[in-house]
Amino acid sequence: MRPDIQGLEITKGELKRLSGVDQGRTYRPPGLGKFATEGLKTLAIIILVAISCLLLMLIFPRDYLLLIAGHLAIIIILIVDDVCKIWLSSRNKHLVNLFDDVDRYNAIIKAIEVNDRIEEAGNSKVSINNRIEVIEALKLIRDDLVRALKTERILRENRKFVATNSEMFTTNFRALTALQIGDRASEQGRLLNEALQLAVGVQEEMKKLQEKQAGN
């Protein structure tokens, strides 16, 4: 990784520190479809656990109480974990949306890193002409994401106060906490759009190289 993009990625550890929430504790997207899918997965696991319990009871009939208790504990843990994730995701949709923004941002960093490696391998045509502008855009985006995550956490942890003093928070919450990547009118939006186009260009270039390698 080149020095100019080192430290730009928002790591899982940093994301957890900023938001106070582990990404793995949420379902994305936070919708009924996703919740239903994850619920069905949990149900399938519970069925397998129950079958395991029955088989072990046939093999070790004397320990049936211990087996039932152990497997029942596993089932309860699975259900509680699923319920907690659904509750957290549905109650904090803005946070989940910010997690998605961070993933897209990190994907751009990864695309640039891959592009650099392709260039270093001897493919000079893929060099980034406006690299300085793209890196500056990414720095601005990173600052916005960090600010948004901190803001969302403050409002989430003071939810009751915000609810009872809504007149003090007239600014649109989504506009405050979400990264407006569609705002092409602003300089930041323009530069981010270039960064996104770069990511697409890298993917296309990689596809060409893979097709070329497959043809040899």
Feature tags:
flat, 0% strand, mainly alpha, 216 residues, single chain
Which secondary structure elements does this structure contain, and how are they paired or packed?
Blueprint: H1 12-19, H2 32-59, H3 64-91, H4 93-120, H5 131-157, H6 159-164, H7 173-177, H8 187-215
Could you describe the 3D structure shown?
This protein is mainly α and 216 residues long. 74% of the residues lie in helices and 0% in strands. The chain is built from eight helices and no strands. Helix 4 crosses helix 8 (187-215) and helix 5 (131-157) crosses helix 8 (187-215). The two termini are 29 Å apart. Residues 170-188 have low confidence and may be disordered.
Proportion of β residues?
under 5%
Estimate percent helicity: over 70%
User: Taking all residues together, what is the mean pLDDT?
Assistant: 80
Total of DSSP H or I helical runs spanning 4+ residues: 8
- Give the SSE string: HHHHHHHH
User: How far from one another are the termini?
Assistant: 29 Å
The stretches of 5 or more residues where confidence is low (pLDDT under 50) are: 170-188
What value does the Rg take, in angstroms?
A: 24 Å
Report the principal-axis shape: flat
Q: In this structure, how is the largest beta sheet organized?
A: none
Total E-strand runs: 0
Query: What structural category characterises the helix and strand content?
Result: mainly alpha
